[in-house]
Amino acid sequence: xxxxxxxxxxxxxxxxxxxxxxxxxxxxxxxxxxxxxxxxxxxxxxxxxxxxxxxxxxxxxxxxxxxxxxxxxxxxxxxxxxxxxxxxxxxxxxxxxxxxxxxxxxxxxxxxxxxxxxxxxxxxxxxxxxxxxxxxxxxxxxxxxxxxxxxxxxxxxxxxxxxxxxxxxxxxxxxxxxxxxxxxxxxxxxxxxxxxxxxxxxxxxxxxxxxxxxxxxxxxxxxxxxxxxxxxxxxxxxxxxxxxxxxxxxxxxxxxxxxxxxxxx
Length: 265
Ligand SMILES: C[S@@+](CC[C@H](N)C(=O)[O-])C[C@H]1O[C@@H](n2cnc3c(N)ncnc32)[C@H](O)[C@@H]1O
What we know:
- The protein is of the alpha/beta class.
- Helices cover about 25% and strands about 30% of the residues.
- The chain has a seven-stranded mixed sheet with strand order 9-8-7-10-11-15-12, sandwiched between helices. The chain has a four-stranded antiparallel sheet with strand order 2-1-6-5, with no helix packed on it. It has a two-stranded antiparallel sheet with strand order 3-4.
- Bound molecules: S-adenosylmethionine.
């Protein structure tokens, strides 16, 4: 990544984030800079040995330890960053886009932006004809979210951030989708109802069952939404090496529930 956004093809450039994969498979995200080194216990690996090479190349430390160098995928990028907020995990991001049916040209309201992991994928999904408006209650998260999006996608004219408590109201009307990743989405239900087009979708990402219950009760109380669908996404990684082919011993077992409701006429 450079300040101009993510580079997808061509030789590696200074200023770009690359993923160094050690012989043991450890991942390190580094920003390439002329004259800099990546230090390891097997000696330094020179950034200048990577600049100008192609994606997937090899690079060696001073003592001959071999690293693979890749352009990070979205998942590798977000999972290898230092982050100031809990993000939506990649295993849930795909299902969010599908169950909220985020389409090219859609207008999407999200809250809050946090670190901005979901915002990147919402912007990619709506494309240049669509729009994403992020409501964020905290100045610092509004800034860090904007930074994340700019670094990954470059300047995006179809993204607006409003530093605002979304439970106080949504300005927009004729909205296609509302996606919420905040602790009290039930306060947003009446505003989402006013903002959404008929048939529009409200999707909420909630870590705990009590939050799910409170949100679903609120849908009934406010009316105007069809029965919500609730589910969680379980991803079970496998260990495949030699004759050892089995699920990994430890897995990340729970992130959040997805609650999806559709506005009726
Ligand atoms: C878990 S983070 C969002 C992470 C983000 N979805 C991502 O993938 O990086 C939750 C964010 O919601 C914001 N927030 C909480 N309540 C809010 C409200 N009522 N209105 C707007 N933003 C709110 C918080 O400040 C925080 O930045």
